[in-house]
Amino acid sequence: MFKEMGQFASMMRGLPQIKEKMERFQKRLPQITAEGNAGAFPAQVTVFVNGCMETVSCRIPDQALMLGGGRLGELVQVATHEALLKVRAQVAHEMHEATGMDLSGMLPGMSGMLGLPG
């Protein structure tokens, strides 16, 4: 019990440094980007998202437009999902590098408690 109390006290002393690292990391989130692709060339849809989980751009070639709305919508969805998976992994990795905190096992929604995008 005393060991846990000591660890807690140590963590509390380090809170100002952790807060500073988190603030710097949050400012970096818009610069972290990932790309997701779906479809086959020349009808490959490409979606780019940033570390704030925002879609930055979407490339839809003319050939993909000929697929029809349903199929095109699926390609955009798959490419977006792939980009989000990649950027979440990048955010977790860079978070660990910047702060020493490991987000890889964090439950969905808990990152919001840290002020990070879900």
What does this molecule look like?
The protein has a single domain (24-111), classed as 2-Layer Sandwich (Ybab, Chain: A). The chain has a 3-stranded antiparallel β-sheet. It has 4 helices and 3 strands. The model has no long low-confidence stretch (mean pLDDT 85). It has helices at 2-13, 15-28, 62-65, 69-99, and strands at 33-38, 45-50, 55-59. With 118 residues, it is an alpha+beta fold.
Explain briefly what this protein structure is.
The chain has 118 residues and is of the alpha+beta class. The chain has four helices and three strands; from the N terminus they run H-H-E-E-E-H-H. Strand 2 (45-50) and strand 3 form a beta hairpin.
Brief descriptors of the model:
118 residues, alpha+beta, Ybab, Chain: A, 3-stranded antiparallel β-sheet, 4 helices, 3 strands, elongated
Low-confidence stretches: none
Query: CATH homologous superfamily - what is it?
Result: Nucleoid-associated protein YbaB-like domain
Q: CATH class, anyone?
A: Alpha Beta
Number of β-strand runs: 3
Q: Examine the coordinates and then state which fold CATH places here, giving the name of the CATH topology.
A: Ybab, Chain: A
Would you identify the CATH architecture?
A: 2-Layer Sandwich
State the helix count: 4
Helical content stands at 40-55%
Structural class: alpha+beta
Give the strand line-up of the largest sheet.
1-2-3
Q: Termini distance?
A: 34 Å
Write down the secondary-structure element order: HHEEEHH
Shape: elongated
The overall number of domains is 1
Mean pLDDT: 85
Strand content: 5-15%
- Our Rg estimate from Cα atoms comes to 19 Å
Main sheet overview: 3 strands, antiparallel
